[in-house]
């Protein structure tokens, strides 16, 4: 293998940038703060703190009154633990004096702020229990920063085994690229926001009955369906007989009742542009513009908006994030670990030089006999006939399971031919597992991830055929047998392994996404749980589903509009910015990271690419004279 020559400079030597939990001196007077079990305990307490704040809502206490005292007890215990840790760190580091003092370390400042928020939450809960402060009061918003303590549970994994200067340069370059594309996005938002104000304006003109009086507008005064209209007779939609086109805002309706979408001023216009650029309900905005203004304006404006903002800018944003991730991955190769070669779950593939001097991708058999089974069984287990027979039986089992159908409650306790087929297939696959264990030994069998999965299916399906468990959740194990069909196609197996096999990066990203969703749900829960007219954030499950709906981009505008109408006109801009930033991060940055990780998993090492093309590499680099001779001979033959 060809390796890059390492620089001999001192700066190139890898150093480790640890967090505050690991940087304390081992010779400190207070030794308990340096114990690994203390660090683990405090990380577990961070997760418990998030769980506690997720339960701390008026509706949750209304449904489960004991939880109010449970959360109070948990917060009290956590407060004492984290306060003791803060005092110990201040004693070791010093508060202000020294280069390593408490207030000069950013992680320590973060920990101290979390302790302060915990104290504030605990004092507030004492006032709520004593009924000095109403549980539905906005004072509950003081708990908003508390979910950020989740960072303490995972920051131990933020270890950079690179020089500090290189880390700084990487973050600086990456930040510049992301900042540039963010300015690019803001430019188009501002451009179309200004165009919207100049080309359209307000969408408050509706068709109402002729007897509509100002200050007394009801649903009965509106057309069915509610229709926007134009005051100009030659453009837009004209109201039918018996109706007239009136400005509902002039008739006494507020912006909160009419909705916040429109192009009244630059702020509302940018909000509407981003809403349309997300491709969620943008056609309804276009129809409003068509009904209120000339058609050509609406077509030109919204078609170009979708092209530039929804397609061009969004894809540029994703491309920049992917390129930035690729650059960071190259620099942080030491942190991620070396990339493994193309392997499968049952075999290991390596490059081997044959007698002719070429390179071949050869599978190394890890199913070497380690058990006490006879040689005939060993040969049977390793044969391709046995392998294809098992896979064909799995396919038949899947077809039989797919042929089953619901026969009503009366057939629930009756066992027909499908039950007998399931028993037969279960016995067959149990015998297969026993054969492999006998041939490989239990240790050799369980060492393969594929065999672990097969053993799990064997245990689950064996319990499933028990009569009392047949119509139960154990049916899922029978359904999961279809996963084994991936082994039919080696190309599919290799492709699946490339995506899911190196699970460190993809798994870390999934954990990060889940943690982000939990933290944002808890923050939104404490931000809106006291709003009486809003039921989307009364409990943590409701808040979680609302934030997940925004993450999926399906109906996220409905969640935002309901919240805007509930909080009132004064807080509407703050709430709109909050949801837009969350949606922007979830749909662009987070999605781009998933695409970048998957693309990175599909790539091969440069060394492997060279090994897969050794002849071309030899001809073009090591023996260019041979290429010239072959070209001359080819030219003479053609002549």
UniProtKB/TrEMBL annotation:
One annotated Gene Ontology cellular component of this protein: plasma membrane
Ion transport domain boundaries: 36-331, 384-604
UniProt superkingdom: Eukaryota
Membrane topology: Multi-pass membrane protein
Keywords: Membrane, Transmembrane, Transmembrane helix
Database matches in Pfam families: Ion_trans
GO molecular function terms listed in the Swiss-Prot or TrEMBL record: monoatomic cation channel activity
Protein localization: Membrane
GO biological process: positive regulation of synaptic transmission, cholinergic; positive regulation of synaptic transmission, GABAergic
Membrane-spanning segments: 108-127, 178-195, 299-322, 385-406, 506-528, 575-599
InterPro entries: Ion_trans_dom (IPR005821), NALCN (IPR028823), Volt_channel_dom_sf (IPR027359)
PANTHER family: SODIUM LEAK CHANNEL NALCN, SODIUM LEAK CHANNEL NON-SELECTIVE PROTEIN
Protein name from the UniProt record: Sodium leak channel non-selective protein
């Amino acid at each position: 293998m060809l390796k890059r020559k390492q620089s001999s400079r001192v700066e190139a030597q890898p150093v480790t940038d640890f967090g505050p939990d690991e940087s304390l001196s081992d010779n400190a007077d207070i030794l308990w703060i340096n114990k690994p079990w203390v660090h683990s305990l405090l990380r577990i307490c961070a997760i418990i703190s998030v769980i506690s704040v997720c339960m701390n809502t008026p509706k949750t206490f209304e449904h489960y009154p004991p939880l109010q005292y449970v959360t109070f007890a948990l917060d009290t215990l956590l407060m004492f633990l984290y306060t003791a840790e803060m005092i110990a760190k201040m004693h070791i580091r010093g508060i202000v004096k020294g280069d390593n003092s408490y207030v000069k370390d950013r992680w320590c400042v973060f920990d101290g702020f979390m302790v302060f928020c915990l104290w504030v939450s605990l004092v507030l809960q004492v006032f709520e229990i004593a009924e000095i402060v109403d549980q539905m009061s906005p004072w509950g918003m003081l708990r908003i920063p508390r979910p950020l303590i989740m960072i303490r549970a995972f920051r131990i994994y933020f270890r950079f085994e690179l020089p500090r200067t290189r880390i700084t340069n990487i973050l600086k370059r990456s930040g510049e690229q992301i900042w540039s594309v963010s300015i690019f996005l803001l430019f188009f938002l501002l451009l179309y926001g200004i165009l919207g104000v100049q080309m359209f304006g307000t969408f408050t003109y509706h068709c109402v009955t002729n007897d509509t009086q100002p200050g007394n507008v009801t649903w009965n005064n509106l057309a069915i369906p509610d229709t926007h209209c134009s005051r100009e007779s030659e453009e837009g939609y004209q109201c039918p007989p018996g109706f007239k086109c009136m400005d509902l805002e002039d008739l006494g309706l507020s912006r909160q009742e009419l909705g916040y979408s429109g192009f009244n001023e630059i702020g509302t216009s940018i909000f509407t542009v981003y809403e349309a650029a997300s491709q969620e309900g943008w056609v309804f905005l276009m129809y409003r513009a068509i009904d209120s203004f000339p058609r050509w304006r609406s077509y030109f404006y919204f078609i170009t908006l979708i092209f530039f903002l929804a397609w061009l800018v969004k894809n540029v944003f994703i491309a920049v994030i992917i390129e930035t991730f690729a650059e960071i991955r190259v620099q942080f190769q030491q942190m991620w670990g070396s990339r493994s070669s193309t392997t499968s779950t049952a075999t290991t593939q390596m490059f081997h030089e044959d007698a002719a001097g070429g390179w071949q991708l050869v599978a190394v058999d890890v199913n070497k006999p380690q058990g006490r089974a006879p040689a005939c069984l060993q040969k049977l287990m390793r044969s391709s006939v046995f392998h294809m027979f098992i896979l064909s039986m799995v396919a038949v089992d899947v077809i039989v399971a797919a042929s089953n159908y619901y026969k009503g409650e009366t057939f629930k306790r009756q066992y027909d031919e499908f039950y007998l087929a399931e028993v037969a297939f279960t016995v067959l696959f149990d015998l297969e597992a026993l054969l492999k264990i006998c041939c490989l030994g239990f240790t050799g069998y369980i060492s393969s991830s594929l065999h672990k999965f097969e053993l799990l299916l064997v245990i689950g399906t064996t319990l499933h055929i028990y009569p009392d468990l047949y119509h139960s959740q154990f049916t899922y194990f029978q359904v999961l047998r279809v996963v084994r069909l991936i082994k039919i196609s080696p190309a599919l197996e290799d492709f699946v392994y490339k995506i899911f096999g190196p699970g460190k990066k993809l798994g870390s990203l999934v954990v990060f996404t889940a943690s982000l969703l939990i933290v944002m749900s808890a923050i939104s829960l404490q931000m809106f749980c006291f709003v009486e007219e809003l039921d989307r954030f009364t409990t943590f499950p409701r808040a979680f589903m609302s934030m997940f709906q925004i993450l999926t981009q399906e109906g996220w505008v409905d969640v935002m509009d309901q919240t805007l109408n509930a909080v009132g006109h004064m807080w509407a801009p703050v709430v709109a910015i909050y949801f837009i930033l969350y949606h922007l991060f979830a749909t662009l940055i987070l999605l781009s990271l998933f695409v970048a990780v998957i693309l990175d998993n599909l790539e091969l090492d440069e060394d492997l690419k060279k090994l897969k093309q050794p002849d071309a590499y030899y001809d073009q680099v090591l023996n260019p004279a041979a290429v010239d001779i072959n070209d001359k001979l080819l030219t003479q033959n053609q002549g």
